[in-house]
What we know:
mainly beta, seven-stranded mixed sheet, four-stranded antiparallel sheet
Amino acid sequence: QVQLVESGGGLVQPGGSLRLSCVASGSIFSIYAMGWYRLAPGKQRELVAVIAFGGITTYADSVKGRFTISRDNAKNTVYLQMNSLKPEDTAVYYCNMGVAGTTSRVPKTHWGQGTQVTVSS
């Protein structure tokens, strides 16, 4: 079993910053891509950022230059540093990882439970 636990969400004023973290635990052999998605009311789920095992990153156009994704492979953790936050960034943020377990070694997609980010004055 693999579990992903997110933290770091909250309420912040426009222009502020937050740092999200997501830690994977369980029977982990290797973690491939790590990413963050978000779901806002009335909208479809949106890919925010992805980081490959080797460190190559991809961002949604809406967050380029404001958000930074990073990972610590030794800690099975992915981070999302969010700066210059805007009201339209308000959403539930979910982390996503491709994890190969110690038993099957076949990568499977795992999701966190989500953390609320609210940007409002």
